[in-house]
Design a protein that fits this description.
The complex is a heterodimer of chains A (552) and B (121).
Chain A lengths: L2 H16 L11 H7 L17 E3 L1 H14 L6 H14 L4 H4 L3 H4 L12 H8 L5 H4 L1 E3 L1 H14 L24 H12 L5 H9 L7 E9 L3 E11 L6 E10 L5 E11 L3 E8 L8 E7 L5 E8 L5 E9 L5 E6 L2 E3 L5 E8 L10 E2 L4 E9 L3 E8 L6 E7 L2 E10 L4 E5 L2 E5 L10 E2 L1 E6 L12 E5 L3 E6 L13 E3 L4 E4 L16 E9 L9 E10 L14
Chain B lengths: L8 H10 L56 H10 L24 H4 L9
Classes of the chains: A alpha+beta (552), B mainly alpha (121).
Chain lengths: 552, 121
């Protein structure tokens, strides 16, 4: 089975020996050469077989090192493995522009991704895994060929699934390449080893200077927006490893959280860390996957945890400058005619002694008093005119401004449940459960009066009644009885894994259901609004590929 | 079939589906419409979140229509086939390389599924 892979490797080696292929990267690190050199030969130009001809994310390199240890019997201790991953991620990593389209993969986001550039290649790769794995790699053509050979060697089943023609070409059609050739051709054109992006980035790349105070803003599904501060310090003796302390408060409910973390920044822009809230057990720790924007003034990404990385929060960090800055406002939606509404403005270096006159929410919204004001947070009370025009308002306060900070509205036209489709997995007996969190958002249709158009305004999350409804697929569909329970916070807990004798045919506790949110607007004759999302509760995974899951 | 004429609503709907789409970019929500008059309109695929492999019928997380209704049920009944033949290498360990003794503790997954190991390659 492995003969195919080996012979492919052997065939290419003598060819390189005769005429050195200098498209690859030189590798001179003694540890890499010592650990990898047993199988990967170095040529006369310091190019190492296979290793010199690919670029990947830190996760990609970590997966390779783990595979070499688990399948190819490489003896390597964790410190050496970390050093090798760092060497490759920095020397043969990806530029910020190359990472951007595939960030959903490393941030472990459950999104619906369509790869539009080549449908056949998408089908070939996505038969088994996300396209994110593919678009976060760069290889020479012969390396893309060897990657396919490796797949065929390790997983012969792929020949009968993804790598075969699904049907013979129509008699009168033009010649169609085999799916494998199509993928190799496309990938070697779309994701070559050498790119202008990497040439430019590797010329300016340096350890990211991130020390200092950062303003933190984020959103956690189910708990809402949070704001705070993160102080980053360098680990002594290193230039790309950091410790961090994040302190933030949820805008709704006011819970204060402090997290202590440690991280490595790979390739000058890929923050990979882990943080734990003070006084909490280690299993509440979160992996931090954050991208540092070129210029080192902004970072954004996702912090996550859970059996399937499903508990996560979007985070955005902005370097605190000497001047005042506004990070966000809560609540965002201000209904026309409401009186004495408490609004909190979050930011950095806000004036300690702000006056009502110095906080300007624009036409129709009047600040009546400042309840309290500190550098990070200002609490004010506002009245909204009953004739306030529907629309977004910029905020100006204490010398700082925020575009589209709040929305004045008179009526919520519809609600939307996010995510629009979601997935949970049965578990709890032998494998972890995959939970699902939903949120309901209020929308105003905007000037055109039509839903789902660009001028719609999001007025923030709204309180709703949650319920499950049948998504009818089969005759006498009874999934809602078995898949699990949805609580009134929009949090879905799946049922246990394993066959269920109570179901016909001992089926698993899986199925398709609608998650339905019902919002009752204020007012006596208001009509209830409904929104829904498709939830697929499905089978577990018995093999977990994400190397970061078991990493410290 | 040009000599057949649609006479009821269902037939007209079928006829419309098979009629080349008018290349009016304002009416068409997707790029398919920009492909002009060649062939029938391709309907959108099922709405499936990331992580699903749904190319095969049945798939692992969802079947080819985006639902769980067509999956092998219970999954334990089908597990060893996926394992021995490397049928679902991303979802189930494979016999060849990663977990040669995955089934040692459970002869019949339908009864012994509590002994199935979770594999971190």
């Amino acid at each position: 089975m492995l003969a195919g892979v080996m012979s492919a490797g052997l065939m290419s080696s003598p060819a390189r020996a005769q005429r050195p292929d200098t498209t690859g990267f030189e590798i001179t690190d003694p540890l890499v050469l010592r650990k990898c050199g047993g199988c990967h030969k170095t040529d006369s130009t310091n190019r190492v077989a296979r290793l010199s001809y690919l670029r990947k994310t830190p996760e990609g390199w970590e997966a390779s090192v783990r595979r070499m240890a688990s399948l190819n019997s490489v003896k390597i201790d964790p410190a050496e493995a970390r050093s090798i991953v760092k060497y490759f991620a920095n020397r043969q990593g990806l530029a910020p522009a190359e990472v951007a389209p595939g960030r959903f993969e490393t941030e472990r986001r459950l999104v619906e991704y369509r790869y539009a550039a080549d449908g056949q290649t998408e089908r070939t790769c996505r038969a088994c895994h996300s396209l994110g794995r593919v678009i976060l790699q760069r290889r020479t053509k012969s390396e893309w060929e060897l990657l396919i050979a490796t797949h065929r060697g390790y997983y012969p089943g792929s020949d009968f699934q993804a790598f075969r023609r699904m049907a013979p070409p129509a008699p009168d059609s033009a010649p169609q390449p085999h799916p494998m050739d199509q993928a190799i051709g496309h990938l070697s054109r779309a994701f070559p080893l050498r790119t202008p992006e990497w040439t430019a980035w590797s010329a300016t790349m340096r350890p990211a200077p991130l020390e200092g105070a950062w303003s933190l803003a984020g959103h956690e599904p189910g708990r809402g927006a949070f704001f705070g501060r993160m102080v980053i310090s360098k680990v002594p003796g290193t230039d790309d490893e950091f410790t961090s302390r994040a302190t933030y408060r949820y805008a709704s409910g006011g819970a204060l959280v402090t997290r202590d973390g440690r991280s490595v920044v790979y390739t000058g822009h890929q923050w990979r860390g882990r943080s734990t809230p003070a006084g909490m057990p280690p299993d509440s720790s979160m992996r931090e996957v954050v991208s540092v924007e070129p210029g080192w003034q902004e970072m954004s990404g996702r912090w996550f945890r859970g059996g399937y990385d499903e508990f996560g929060m979007d985070v955005k960090l902005t370097r605190v400058s000497p001047g005042a800055a506004i990070a966000g406002v809560s609540p965002v939606g201000l209904r026309a005619g409401s009186r004495d509404v408490e609004v909190t403005v979050f930011g950095a270096n806000l004036p300690r002694a702000a006056t009502a006159a110095s906080v300007d929410f624009g036409p129709g919204i009047t600040v009546t008093r400042v309840v309290r004001s500190s550098p990070d947070e200002m609490v004010v009370r506002v009245n909204v005119d009953s004739s306030a025009r529907t629309g977004q308002r910029d905020l100006f306060a204490g010398g700082a401004s925020l575009r589209n900070a709040v929305v004045a509205y008179s009526r919520i036209d519809r609600i939307k449940v996010t995510p629009q489709s979601n997935m949970a997995r049965a578990g709890g007996v032998r494998v972890p459960k995959m939970f699902a969190q939903f949120e309901a958002w209020g929308y105003v249709n905007g000037a055109d009066g039509k839903p789902d158009t660009d001028d719609d305004l999001n007025v923030g999350t709204v309180p709703v009644r949650w319920g499950l409804e049948e998504y009818g697929v089969t005759f006498k569909d009874d999934d809602t009885q078995y898949v699990g329970a949805l609580d009134q916070r929009g949090f879905f807990t799946p049922n246990v894994d394993g066959p269920n004798p109570a179901r016909k045919g001992s089926r698993n506790n899986i199925g398709d259901v609608w998650v339905v949110a019902t919002y009752t607007p204020e007012g006596a004759n208001a009509r209830a609004l409904k929104g829904r999302s498709l939830l697929i509760v499905t089978v577990p995974l018995y093999m977990r590929w994400e190397p970061s899951r078991t990493a410290p | 079939m040009r000599h057949l004429k649609a006479i009821n609503r269902k037939a007209r709907t079928i006829d419309q589906l098979n009629t080349p789409a008018t290349p009016d970019v304002h009416d068409q929500p997707d790029v398919v419409a920009l492909q002009g008059n060649s062939g029938p309109r391709v309907p959108d695929g099922p709405h499936v979140p990331l992580g699903c492999s749904f190319v095969f019928a049945p798939g692992w997380e969802v079947d080819s229509s985006g639902s769980t209704a067509g999956l092998c049920q219970p999954v334990e009944r089908d597990l060893y086939d996926c394992y021995v033949t490397c049928f679902w290498p991303i979802h189930v360990p494979d016999l060849l390389n990663h977990a040669p003794d995955w089934t040692n503790k459970c002869a019949a997954a339908q009864q012994d599924w509590r002994k199935i190991d979770l594999i971190f390659p």
